[in-house]
Design brief:
Helix content: under 10%
Strand order of the largest sheet: 1-30-29-28
Number of helices: 1
Number of domains: 2
Distance between the termini: 12 Å
Strand content: over 45%
CATH class of the largest domain: Mainly Beta
CATH topology of the largest domain: Methylamine Dehydrogenase, Chain H
CATH superfamily of the largest domain: YVTN repeat-like/Quinoprotein amine dehydrogenase
Number of strands: 30
Structural class: mainly beta
Radius of gyration: 18 Å
Largest sheet: 4 strands, antiparallel
Length: 315
């Protein structure tokens, strides 16, 4: 097990680099990224150049881009692993700086500027395009040269996104309204109409698709909900076990295993087929606020509210 104690703020998000050698950590209260070298057990910090705290970051599938988004529409794009600022790799400027949305009750063609944040960004699996969730605006599929495909849905300040591993479904969470919308995509990333909309029983904080694309997991304050996305219904099943305040969830990239990070200080593994808990870890780092699997599924990482991070072998 590796332990990193460098950060002074609660860990809001964790993610491994595509080669699994670096664990990236972000805090909402800080505009720096922490880069944890899992081989040398060292930590370096990188200025994200954002105006405020970091809300989201994502690696492109080819491992050459690291995109970061934050409050007030701030964002940065780096080439990886040299971390050179390179907005040309993913032209979010054209989308973010114009950030247009339309009043559908008005016949006017004029657009209004939305001065809100990019609350989440996720790359389309296997492609260079990224999906952006912009508070108070439409979801956008952004292409490297700056073109975009809008998805007409208003999202709140607390929205989150998740792509299915095959890149054919996108789930968007509107945390304030307690709704999740699911789209299935055709060729060229053109979305069908929303196929399912889920009304959640309690506030949800995290989304994850299973490795076989069949299940959408939703972590919320009272537990974890599973939805079979192969069915066009809003029916749920609930994981059974001791769950106290789930902050984040992460799906194993190859197996039907789900990890949950909870306020009770534990990380729990769940079998998504049997819907039963299989393992429980308590690394004594306080309430766990973030969790992530490495791309090969061999390691898991957890971050706590006290700024500590632990990395361990799954088997």
């Amino acid at each position: 097990m590796l332990t990193f104690k460098h950060l002074k703020y609660p860990i809001a998000r964790l993610g491994f680099s595509p080669d699994g050698g670096t664990l990236v950590a972000a805090c909402n209260e800080d505009a720096h990224l922490a880069l944890c070298d899992t081989a040398n057990q060292s930590v370096t910090t990188c200025d994200s150049f954002l105006e405020a705290g970091i809300l989201s970051f994502a690696f492109s599938p080819n491992g050459k881009i690291l995109a970061v988004s934050g409050l007030s529409g701030s964002h940065a794009v780096y080439s990886w692993p040299d971390l050179k600022y390179d907005p040309g790799e993913l032209s979010m400027d054209r989308v973010v700086n114009s950030r247009l949305y339309y009043d559908f009750d008005d016949d006017s063609d004029e657009a209004e500027v939305d001065e809100t944040s990019i609350t989440d960004l996720v790359f389309v699996p296997g492609r260079k395009e990224a999906a952006l969730a912009m508070a108070g605006s439409d979801l956008q599929i952004v292409f490297p040269r700056g073109d975009k495909v809008p998805i007409r849905v208003a999202v709140s300040e607390h929205s989150h996104l998740a792509w299915s591993p095959d890149g054919k479904m996108l789930a968007a969470l509107d945390r304030e309204l307690g709704k999740i919308t699911l789209w299935r995509f055709k060729a060229r990333l053109q979305p069908d109409l929303a196929i399912v909309q889920y009304d959640l029983p309690s506030p949800c904080a995290s989304l994850a698709f299973s490795a076989d694309n069949s299940t959408l997991a939703m972590g919320h304050l009272d537990g974890i909900i599973l939805a079979d996305v192969r069915r066009r219904t809003g029916s749920f099943s609930v994981l059974k076990g001791q769950l106290v305040g789930v902050n984040k969830i992460a799906a194993h990239p190859k197996e039907l295993v789900l990890a949950s990070a909870s306020r009770d200080g534990t990380v729990r593994f769940w079998d998504m087929k049997t819907q039963r808990e299989t393992k429980c870890f308590d690394w004594k780092i306080g309430p766990v606020s973030a969790v992530a699997f490495s791309p090969d599924g061999m390691r898991c990482a957890a971050g706590g509210n006290r700024g500590q991070i632990v990395v361990w072998d799954v088997d």
